Amino acid sequence: MSDTVGIAPSVRAVPRAGWHVGTVTAAIRETPNATRLEIEVDGWPGNAPGQHLDVRLTAPDGYTATRSYSIASSGDASRVVLAVDKLPDGEVSPFLVDEVRAGDLLEVHGPLGAFFVWRPGGDPRPVQLIAGGSGVVPLYAIAGARAQAGDETPFRLLYSVRTPGDVYFARELEALAGTSAPLRLDLVYTRRAPDGWPTPPRRITRELLEASVVPAAEHPLVYVCGSTGFVERIADWLVEFGHDPRSIRTERYGGT
Amino acid sequence: MEHVDGNALAGPLAEFFSFDVTMAVAKCEGCGSIAELARAMVYASDAGTVVRCGSCGQVLMTLVESEDRAWIRFTGMGAIEVARTSAAG
After folding, report:
1. Taking the CB of residue A230, how many other CB atoms lie within 10 A of it?
2. Are A52 and A138 in contact, with CB atoms under 8 Å apart?
3. CA-based nearest residue to A228, from A132, A90, A156
4. Which of A190, A203, A206, B15 has its CA 20 to 30 A from that of A166?
5. Chain B residues lying within 8 Å of A109, measured CB to CB
6. Is residue B56 classed as helix, strand or coil in its secondary structure?
7. How far apart (Å, rounded) are the C-alpha atoms in residues B5 and B13?
8. Cβ(B42)–Cβ(B3) under 8 Å?
9. Considering only CA atoms, which of A135, A137, A57 is closest in space to residue A91?
10. Which pLDDT score, from 0 to 100, does residue A131 have?
11. Which chain A residues have a beta carbon less than 8 Å from that of B67?
């Protein structure tokens, strides 16, 4: 076709998004600044690994605020898991992190977005995941789906986090790193490292990034999620290293 | 203003389109680059949402919503290419 502008990725249909009412079944402190929410969503059609949903809060006067959150779980189940980071001036996250209790109802819209998705049994290329802080949530969903499916695609996660106490899904990630087809986990602590850690706290530099990711020569698929500044810095360096921009998928959550 | 990316359009636009707009491929009429809308830059405020090309910053699209309607303007992009789910593998 002469007027075709590109090659739209041929994706399997994702479940149609809709508004649903969810019942919080558990609200568990994940880190000092984040809460893990397990939500049973009436009519939820399931979701692919890496998708997100929108949560809408409505005040008594009718004022609404809607925010997007990545889903830490995937599959056909009607239960979804979130891990919400509290933003200091947030309208929605302080409520979700500090106020929500089991039994509370939440309006959720989803599942959303087919771009930042990886499915087991599909693309055979090795996968490099790169997370800044709470950006690990969709990447954990992806790594978890791979393990659950027994998929042996080479996987590596580079995770930048402030302190050991700020690691999301710490036990689960450790378990994924200990399977027969392990997730290779590289943690970078930016403020405080565990006792006996080989390096002092540091940020991901260009050199550290180059040494910690699947090399461009192996043509990995790369998923980067974190604050806008983090994601753009990392993605720019990856392109400089020779990674194909089309093989880099990014999700920016704003902030600094 | 801090921006996010086109992934954030999935929710707001799901109300108006029956396909996932973030996977639609569009050509920027400013620089000619071709990308999924998920790769665009999104600047959202209470007044509305501006979608800019990830390569050159040209405005591709704007979204303004009121309580009972929405205005979606495809300012700076040509045809969008959408994969048929029935033909997907």
Report:
1. 23
2. yes
3. A132
4. A206
5. 11, 14
6. coil
7. 14
8. yes
9. A57
10. 98
11. none
Contact at CB, A6 and B27, closer than 8 angstroms = yes
Give the CA distances from residue A138 to residues A73, A256, B48, B73, in Å, rounded to whole numbers and listed in that order.
Answer: 8, 19, 27, 31
Q: Which of A3, A5, A63 to mutate to test the interface with B (most CBs of B within 10 A)?
A: A5
Contacts of A228 in chain B (CB under 8 A): 2-5
Q: Are B4 and A7 an interchain contact pair (Cβ–Cβ within 8 Å)?
A: no
ipTM associated with this complex:
0.93
- Which secondary structure element, helix H or strand E, spans residue B32, and what is its range? none
- Domain spans of chain B, in order of start: 4-87
**SS3 category, A246:** helix
- CA distances in angstroms from A150 to A121, A146, A147, A214, B65, listed in the order given: 9, 6, 5, 21, 44
Give residue ranges of A with CB < 8 Å to any B CB. 3-14, 16-17, 52-54, 66, 68, 109-110, 112-116, 228, 249-256
How many other C-beta atoms can be found within 10 angstroms of the C-beta atom of residue A238?
A: 24
- Nearest CB partner across the interface for B83, out of A11, A113, A255: A11
Structure tokens at A214: 């699947």
- Residue A218 pLDDT > 80, yes or no? yes
Torsion B52-B58-B60-B65 (CA) sign: positive
Measure the CA–CA gap between A171 and B10, rounded to whole angstroms. Answer: 31
User: What is the structure's pLDDT at A256?
Assistant: 55
The DSSP letter of residue A226 is: E
pLDDT in tens, A168-206: 999 999 999 999 999 999 999 999 999 999 999 999 999
Q: In this complex, which of B2, B22, B78 lies closest to A115 when CB atoms are compared?
A: B22
Tens of pLDDT along chain B (89 residues) come to 789 999 999 999 999 998 999 999 999 999 999 999 999 999 999 899 999 999 999 999 999 999 899 999 999 998 899 988 765 44
CATH number for the region A127-252 comes to 3.40.50.80
The top-level CATH class assigned to A18-112 is mainly beta
Q: How many helices (H) and strands (E) does chain A have?
A: 5, 11
